[in-house]
Amino acid sequence: MSAKNRIMMISTHGYVGAVPELGKPDTGGQVVYVLELSKCFGRMGYQVDILTRQFEDQPREERVARRVRVLRFPCGGKDFIPKETLCEHIPEWVTTALRMIQGKRLRYEFINSHYWDAGLAGQALASALQIRHMHTPHSIGSWKRDNMDEPPDVLERKYNFRQRIREEAVIYDECDALIATTPQQRDILCDPEGEYEVPREKVFVVPPGYDDNRFFPVSGASRLALKKEHQFEGPIVLALGRMAHNKGYDLLIQAMPVVFERIKGARLLLAIGSTEPSPREREQIEELKQLAERLGVAGRIIYRDYIPDDELADYYRMADVFALSSRYEPFGMTAVEAMACETPAVITTEGGLWEQIIWGLDGIYANPFDPQAFGHAICAVLQHPKLATQLAKFGSQKARARFTWTGVAQRILARSQSLPARVNVPEEHEQALGREERAEHLEEAPL
Question: Of 33, 83, 327, 350, which cross-links 13 as Cys (Cβ 3.0–4.6 Å)?
Answer without folding.
Answer: 83
